[in-house]
Amino acid sequence: MVIRVEAPKAFLKLFLAILAGGVLLAAAILPFAGAGGWVVNASTDTMNSNVQDISENNSVPLRSRITDRDGKTIAWVYNQNRTEVPSDKISQAMKDSIVAIEDRRFYDHNGVDIRGTLRAAAANVSSGGVSEGASTINQQYVKNYLWLIEAENEEEAAQAIETSLPRKLREMKMAGDLDEKLTKDEILTRYLNLVSFGNSAFGVQAAAQTYFGVSAEKLNDNQAAFLAGIVQSTSALNPYTNPEGAKQRRNAVLQARVTAKTLSQTKADEIANQPLGVLKKPRVPENGCIGAGGSGFFCDYVMEYLDKKGISKDEIAKGGYTIRTTLDRKAQKNAQKAARSKVSPGQEGVAAATNYITPKDGKHQVLAMASSRNYGLSQKERESVLPLTHTLQGHGAGSVFKIFAAAAAIEDGMGLNTNLAVPARAEVEGMGAGGAEGCPPNKYCVENAGSYKPNMTLKEALATSPNTPFIEMAEKIGMERIVDIAIKLGLRSYKDEGSFDGEHSVEKYVKDNNLGSFVLGPTAVNPLELSNVAATLAHHGRWCEPLPVLSVKDRNGKKVEFEEANCEQAIDKKVADALANGLGSDVQSGTAAGSARAVGWSGPLAAKTGTTETSYSAAFLGFTSGWAGSSYIFNDGGTAKNLCTAPVRQCGNGNLYGGNEPAQIFFEASKPMVKKYGGKLPSYDKKYDNGTDPGKWGAPGAPASGAAGGTPTNPANPAPSPQTVPRPEDVEIPPEVRRGLSDLDEFLNQFR
Fold it and tell me: φ and ψ at 110, to 5 degrees?
């Protein structure tokens, strides 16, 4: 007879296991019998509340989908990558696999399986480890619900999954109560929609797509066995880091199904010899706007917009919303291509932003929002997640701001054909200091950068952009009124506290200091707001908040109401339409004529170019009746420098103007879309040709009253002579050279 010394030790282990099982059984029975221990009684109210929440609230976190205007997905946003599916959309193989391996008596017990608990305890002791779980699917559902959904912080999450007798007892009681409120199929379906399957996949639908690229209803025996197995430990059984362990676990699930009589041994053996069949890498949708690719900046604006309208980013990340946006995919593609063709995505210190809006259905729908920068986190590639397209950027839009002075002048009685004096230099008091070289103390001095005839109409001035006539307007009208019009037409962030220097708003600072330079656009602009100025004029002077969202539906397909976009009449319709026509010559004979011809632009367009004095930034604004937008190139690095053209880059002496790359971006982006959204200028009241108060501003064909005195002008937009349509090479002549040519021209005039 052979005596094994290990026998007493093994017997003792088994005895202790049985004893522990008895204790566990007694503890498990007590709550249901009404005895209730101090642990259970202490939290009865909480448990009852939790059970009520779990049974009645099936709102698990779901990923939200952001689409373009045609319903095609732009981005997914989620805290947990999960798409909920009903029971009939989950394959029977998946249901059979999870029941076989996790809770073989699922259909027989009432939420807590005492026999299974004792069996698992005995099996774990005999194996010297954890070979079987003791929790039913009911219990696992409760635990995962409290962990993944109810927990509001890390402490509560830790409590939901802690290894302790009190937690286990609470879990068991709640599992039993839940079994009375829900059917077995409801519990199983909810569990499969809730549990984590690893690699950012929550719920069986996301898991099926992540590992196999199929829907949950298409999962076969092999795929289902793998997914059921990985639930035990998503990290240890990850098929991409431990394929052999994952395969062994899959095979264990197959055998569990054989035991449960839901799979034949022959079939199980056949599958066991096959590879797992997972994708080469997990198919996980990128989370958030980074996954939107070229539409990343637009996606960012959508999230920001909805947050302001009462649907928070956190709600979107877990609410399962379908957000249909205004984005026109073709327009977006054109805008992105155009911006990046002129400014390299990796160019150091320089970025372009371009936005396009249609005043469709009485709202300013954002059709495209693009940047030369890629939306992303790679510093090496100079990617950015900063809102370059829709926050204050750069050093201003230059002469584009002359639009605001012109609008105020037309309101004040000036006509499109009113003749304006165009002095080469102007010096004024009370509108700032400095400016052009040699400026006397306490004065603000500006010069025209280029040769101009001594008089021109307002329409000509808008096309060729001399500085001095617009400063004269500003002096006569007052800066307060011009700033108000700029804000009304679309530059709404200028009212924000700190928008000028971190302390003052642009509005307050310019008004308080009566800064005439504002007319020449040296102030940072929001590219989207700049485009919205164009949209307001295209919309007959009616301003609307830029709208990126057409509809929001909840997880059940029900429309979600949110605050409407604001709209108001910014300036009189007749004034807006007259100004639109006044801006109609730029692409024909003005500063953008060369770029327009280069792309074959032949249709009507209201437009204005702009360049800052230092060439730190440049812009182009344009619109027709149905299509409006702008393009803006600016310094986006830590150090601002002059910008040069062809290619756009930081340089020593700047020669980038609004009439070259900014205009080219606009034309290339918008030309294919004009036919779709409209390409006309509005009709206007012809009385605005001569003006509504010609006596105040001077009759057509004669210099405007008071114009000869001039006012300072900042050489913000070097303008060519109106007698000759400028060639691209002419536009690139540095300002100091232009001033020399102007002086030479004046000298030669003495001998003519």
Answer: -110, 35
Residues 257/43, Cβ–Cβ less than 8 Å: no
Do 370 and 281 touch, CB atoms closer than 8 A?
Answer: no
User: What's the rounded Cα separation, in Å, for the pair 76 and 299?
Assistant: 10
Whether 225 and 365 share a structural domain: no
Lookup: tokens for 267 = 């079939």
Q: What whole-number distance in Å separates Cα of residue 112 and Cα of residue 169?
A: 11
Tokens describing residue 671: 């030309």
Whether residues 250 and 356 share a domain: the answer is no
Asked if residues 179 and 226 have their Cβ atoms less than 8 Å apart, the reply is no
**For residues 281 and 327, what is the distance between their CA atoms, to the nearest angstrom?**
31
How many domains, in total, are found in the chain?
Answer: 2
367: Cα separation from own chain's centroid: 13
Task: Find out whether 398 and 616 touch, Cβ atoms under 8 Å.
Answer: no
Rounded to whole angstroms, the Cα distance separating 245 from 636 reads 50
CATH number reported for the structural domain that contains residue 614 in this entry = 3.40.710.10
Judge residue 741's burial from the number of C-beta atoms within 10 Å of its C-beta, 0-12 exposed, 13-18 middle, 19 or more buried: middle
Instruction: Give residue-wise pLDDT tens across range 385-444.
Output: 999 999 999 999 999 999 999 999 999 999 999 999 999 998 888 999 988 899 998 888
Inside any domain, residue 342: no
How many residues can be counted in the chain?
752
Buried b / exposed e along 296-324 (16+ C-beta atoms within 10 A): bbbbbbbbebbeebebeeeebbbbbbbbb
Please give, one letter per residue, the 3-state secondary structure of 360-401: ECCEEEEEEEEECCCECCCCCCCCECCCCCCCCECCCCHHHH
Half-sphere exposure of 155 (CA within 13 A, CB side): 0
The verdict on whether omega for the bond into residue 726 sits within 30 degrees of 0, i.e. cis, is no
* Model pLDDT for residues 27-40, shown as the tens digit of each residue: 444 444 433 343 44
Domain that holds residue 723: 351-369+387-548+563-749
Look at the block and give the residue holding tokens 């059921």: 228
Q: Torsions phi, psi of 106, nearest 5?
A: -50, -40
Among 164, 110, 119, residue whose Cα is nearest residue 137:
110
State both tokens at 604.
């009507």
Enter the tokens of residue 632. Answer: 């803006």
The residues near 302 (Cβ < 8 Å, ≥ 6 apart) are 66, 323, 325, 548, 549
Look-up: residue for tokens 């002086």? 743
Torsions phi, psi for 693 (to 5 deg): -145, 70
What is the rounded CA–CA span in Å between residue 112 and residue 592?
Answer: 78
CA angle at 538 for the pair 532 and 542, rounded to the nearest 5°: 70
3-state secondary structure of 39: helix
606 to each of 96, 176, 262, 603, 671, how far by Cα in Å?
A: 67, 72, 73, 10, 14
Do 681 and 581 form a contact (C-beta atoms < 8 A)? yes
Check whether residue 355 and residue 268 sit in a common domain. no
The token pair that represents 163 in the structure block: 């290894």
Q: Do 635 and 641 touch, CB atoms closer than 8 A? A: yes
pTM for the structure as a whole: 0.84
Handedness of CA 576, 581, 583, 587 (dihedral sign): positive
Which DSSP category does 295 fall into? G
- CA nearest 174: which of 145, 196, 132? 145
How many Å apart are CA 170 and CA 428, to the nearest integer?
Answer: 82
Tokens standing for residue 457 = 């109409």
Query: Cβ contacts of residue 156 below 8 Å, gap of 6+?
Result: 150
pLDDT category of residue 693 using cuts at 50, 70 and 90: very high
Residues 6+ apart with CB under 8 A from 158: none
**Residues 419 and 530 grouped into a single domain:** yes
* Contact by Cβ (8 Å): 530, 490: yes
Please indicate, yes or no, whether residues 253 and 357 belong to a single structural domain of this protein: no
Question: Which pLDDT band, with edges at 50, 70 and 90, does 699 fall under?
Answer: low
Q: Give the contacts of 415 (CB within 8 A, at least 6 positions apart).
A: 458, 688, 689, 690, 691, 692, 694, 697, 700
